[in-house]
Structure formats: C-alpha cells, structure tokens
TrEMBL record:
Keywords: Signal. Pfam families: SBP_bac_8. The keyword Nuclease does not apply. It comes from the Bacteria. This is Extracellular solute-binding protein. InterPro entries: Bact_solute-bd_prot1, SBP. Residues 1-22 form the signal peptide. SUPFAM superfamilies: Periplasmic binding protein-like II (SSF53850). It comes from Nonomuraea bangladeshensis.
Length: 423
C-alpha cells in the first residue's frame, strides 16, 4: 500500500515479533480450532476496522491482529518468520514486495486448493497474475490497487490566484513539465512550497505510468536502460531543482505535520493515500479536492493477502480472504474507506461511480481513480523492484536536500542499485 523507510527500532520490534508472535491489537492467541487465526498487517491503513467488521459478521471467530509496521517491515518480518518456521496464518504483502515471495511458492499455501483458480477471473488480469507463480500456484489474493490522482488544497490555490475547480486544475498539468511550471507559479505567488517532495510525488508517479519499469516482460532487469525510468528520474531532479518542494519525505513525521499546516499545497495521491490525509489532517476537511494526475493514468500501490505454508489455521484465514476480498466485499470496503477495488465488475457499480468524498470537496473519487486505472498499460514487477525503486528515491532526495550533485545523481543511483541487488 505504501512505502516506508525501515528504522532499526521498528525492524527490531518486527523481528522480535516473529519469535514471540505477540503484539498488536485484537483478541486472544489463536487456538488452532479452525476458526481463530493470526493476521499480520501494515500499520496506518486501519486494518483493525476491517477485522472488527469481519468478526461482527462471523460471531465466534477470533482474529489476532498484529500491525507490524510499514509494508517494508512487514515483508522483512515475514521473511524472518518463514526462515524460522513460526508464521502467522494470514499476512498482508505490498505489491512491490510480492515478487520475491512468488519466486518461493513452496513457502505458501497454494490458494487453488481453496478455490482461488475458480475466482481469479473476478480480478484484474494483470493484478492476479502478479501473485501467480510460473508453476501455477496462486499465493495471494489482491486487496486493492491505487490508481493515481493529485490531491490539492483549494484554499491555498485560491490564495495563489490559481483556479480551484477540479476540472480546471486538471487542465493546468496535462504533462509533468506543466505540473512543474504550475508549481513555479504557485511558489512565486506565495513564497511557499507547492508539492511535498520530488521523489514520491513526481518520480514514483511518472515511473508507474508506462508499459515497462525496472524489468522487461521477460523478467530481465532493464532499470539502467529503460527510457521510462530515465524520463521519470529526470523529471524528479528537475522538480527538486525548481525550488517548489517542501523537501519532506513521504510518511515521516514532518511530512504528516506539514500536511495539516498547509506547508505544501499538492500531493500525488493514489486512492489509499486519501485515508492518510484524513487521519493526518482532520481539521482540513473540505479544503482539499482531487484532480487528474499528469499523463492521466497509472497505478501506485496495491496489496495481497497470503497464507504461509506452516499456518496453523489456513481454512480460517481463507474464509477471511474469500469473504472480505470478493467483488462485493471490495466494493463495500471502497464505500467505507476509499480503497480502490481490484475487481472490475465493481467499476460500473453506482456505489463506486457515484461516491463523492465530503472530505475532498465531494470529489467523485470512484470515477477519478477508476479512469486513471483503466488507462494503465501494465508492467512487470520483479523480485528487486522495491530495492531498485528505493535507491532511485534516495538519489532524488539527496539532490532535493542539497546533499547530492544533480549531474551525478543518475550514475550514483545506478551504482547503488548494482551494489544492492548485484546486477
């Protein structure tokens, strides 16, 4: 669902969790009775609400929910748990972290034994294919996709003399170059930062908008030669040098606090990030709206529910998956939280298309995000996509913070990636 840098304290807690299998909210330790189960999830996405709703609808079922940390911490804790043999019954895996687990399908329950092969047509082809091993095993069921859009502060745009109507705002930036120019106008008029940062709000959006990212369709690493990657990187460096960013890394404390204070007016926001804005800046309700992303289409994010091979209660975990991630279950979750379904049958449902979000000036979020997703040309996510992406983000952030040379940033990123993944 989201990126988050790993800190030693959080990672240590995550690793300790694999040995003790404790922590988190929820009820008593699963009993192995086939009904109760242990669930590891990310923090910050209100998973507790989904679990509570499921338990209300299924009396007698106890779910031991542990929010491990960010998506990276959760994947690292799972890796350690798989090596140590003590695993949860159910785990949420972020899309960029999934491929390395798909390469080892023997570590997970093949969900075809529970009927996943019969329902895979319920999901977007390119999404369910990411959790399907080459030998055919289905190790995960998708929970959501991100889509792309831009959340912006209408009050701050008005102060800068910019239009505030979402359609007019979308016309300001048909391209990323136009987005940067709009940022320059905003900063010149207000003396304040336009966008939170160049790394995630520009690079991570632009790089996810084309048909090829870090891997080619055959699975070969092409991050160093992909025109799409280089173009996205250059746009981010251009943004960093334009003096229009708040230089605040996504999901860190300063970024969250600045969101509520209006220290930046724009943030690239896949559907799941809208919940972050609600939680971090509750007093700004009605001051935000949602416009189209430059380029019009793309996807950032998405997660999967998987059952490790050694799970004590796999059937109970599957019941949770099958009920909460059905087309109806995902539609209900969108209406409740705004998480965009991976089930295309929901894309024409009036509940999705007609949903207006009062926090974001009644923006038709279902329509906006569905349109951005349907225009996407899918690309392959490989086993080292997360590590590759992180090094590009680091290089951009160093330039933004004045610690890196813009002229050398690309070569620095490539060298660090080669060190990180060995190729």
């Amino acid at each position: 669902m989201k990126l988050r840098r790993t800190t030693p304290v959080v990672l240590a807690a995550a690793l300790a969790l694999t040995a003790a299998c404790g922590g988190g909210g929820g009820s008593a330790q699963p009993s192995g009775d086939g009904k109760s189960f242990e669930f590891w999830s990310f923090s910050g996405i209100n998973q507790k609400k989904s679990v509570e709703d499921y338990q209300k609808a299924n009396p007698g079922v106890q779910v031991k929910l542990t929010e491990v940390g960010g998506s990276t911490e959760t994947a690292q804790a799972l890796t350690t748990a798989l090596a140590g043999g003590k695993v949860p019954d159910l785990v949420l895996i972020q899309g960029d972290d999934l491929p390395k687990f798909v390469q080892q399908p023997q570590n997970f329950q093949d969900l075809r034994q529970y009927g996943a092969d019969k329902i895979k047509s319920d999901y977007l082809d390119w999404v369910i294919s990411q959790s399907t091993a080459r030998s055919g095993e289905i190790i995960g069921i998708p929970t959501d996709v991100g889509g792309m859009a831009v959340a912006y502060r209408t009050d701050l745009f008005k102060q800068a003399g910019l239009p505030t109507d979402r359609d007019e705002v979308s016309k300001l930036w048909p391209t990323w170059d136009a987005f940067i120019e709009t940022g320059k106008k905003y900063t010149a008029a207000t003396g304040k930062a336009f966008v939170d940062n160049a790394a995630t709000s520009v690079f991570y959006q632009a790089v996810n908008q084309g048909p090829q990212k870090y891997y080619d369709p055959s699975g070969n690493v092409v991050y160093a030669t992909s025109p799409q990657v280089k173009t996205a990187f250059d746009l981010a460096i251009k943004t960093a040098q334009a003096g229009i960013t708040a230089k605040l890394s996504s999901f860190e404390d300063g970024w969250s606090a600045a969101m509520s204070k209006g220290d930046y007016a724009v943030i690239s926001a896949p559907s799941w990030l809208l919940e972050q804005i609600r939680n971090n800046a509750p007093d700004t309700k009605g001051k935000w709206d949602v416009a189209k992303i430059p380029g019009g289409a793309g996807n950032w994010g998405g997660s999967y529910l998987a059952i490790p091979k050694g799970a004590a209660n796999p059937k109970a975990a599957w019941d949770y998956i099958s009920k909460t991630q059905s087309p109806q279950g995902q539609l209900d979750h969108f209406v409740d939280s705004g998480a965009l379904p991976t089930t295309p049958s929901a894309y024409q449902d009036p509940k999705l298309l007609g949903r207006k979000d009062p926090f974001f000036s009644d923006a038709p979020t279902g329509k906006i995000y569905t349109e951005s997703l349907l225009g996407l040309k899918p690309f392959l996510i490989g086993p080292d996509s997360a590590a590759i992406g992180q090094e590009f983000l680091n290089a951009i952030t160093n330039v933004e913070q004045g610690k890196g040379d813009p002229a050398k940033a690309w070569d620095t990123a490539l060298a660090n990636i080669k060190t990180s993944i060995g190729k």
